[in-house]
Amino acid sequence: MSENVDYTKFKLPPALVSRADLARLIREVEAVDADLESQKVKSHDHESQGKLPAISRGLQEFLELNKLDLTNNHVRVSAKEELVKLKDKAPAIHMTFAVPADTEVLQQLVSWTRANAHPQSLLSIGIQPSLIGGAYIRTPNHVHDFSMRSMLENKRDIMLKVLETQQS
Predict the structure, then answer these.
(1) Could you tell me if 17 and 51 lie in one domain?
(2) Alpha-carbon distance 29 to 84, whole Å?
(3) Among 61, 62, 63, 109, which one has the highest count of C-beta atoms within 10 angstroms of its own C-beta?
(4) Pair 74, 114 in one domain
């Protein structure tokens, strides 16, 4: 990729689900930057490109998807700045579940969201046991209540009639 990096063009791997995941990615890019700068100082050659330190699978996937080379100082600095912008501006969908969702399910949800809503969608996950089951989903424009609690509340009259007929 060229030295001009644009966050609106970033592709996000499924493992990058939330703003917290994006913040970890930024911290890792900062650590790589610090490590490479340290290598330059130690080698006394400010033009040499250092060896990339060990990086996480998430960062590796991100770099491959976006064809970024972090050994290039300009790309690294630009990518770091653009990732911060992305963290602040990426659309987030708030999902609340009755129980914690496993990582695989969250990755499937974020993949579907990126394919159908916005390619840089992030999820904000919450837990609310009173939902009983299902999910409560909130976007900037809509609220969808797919919880068991909501379903039971909507069917309350039917359940009361069934209970009354069984008691008679």
Answers:
(1) yes
(2) 11
(3) 62
(4) no
Q: CA distances (Å), 84 to each of 29, 35, 41, 149, in order?
A: 11, 19, 26, 38
Q: What is the pTM of this model?
A: 0.79
Cβ-based neighbours of 100, under 8 Å, separated by 6 or more: 127
Q: What are phi and psi of 17, to 5 degrees?
A: -100, -45
Q: Using DSSP bridges, classify how beta strands 134-138 and 143-147 pair: parallel, antiparallel or unpaired.
A: antiparallel
What is the tens place of the pLDDT at every residue in 113-126?
999 999 999 999 99
- Cα–Cα distance between 8 and 67 in angstroms, integer? 14
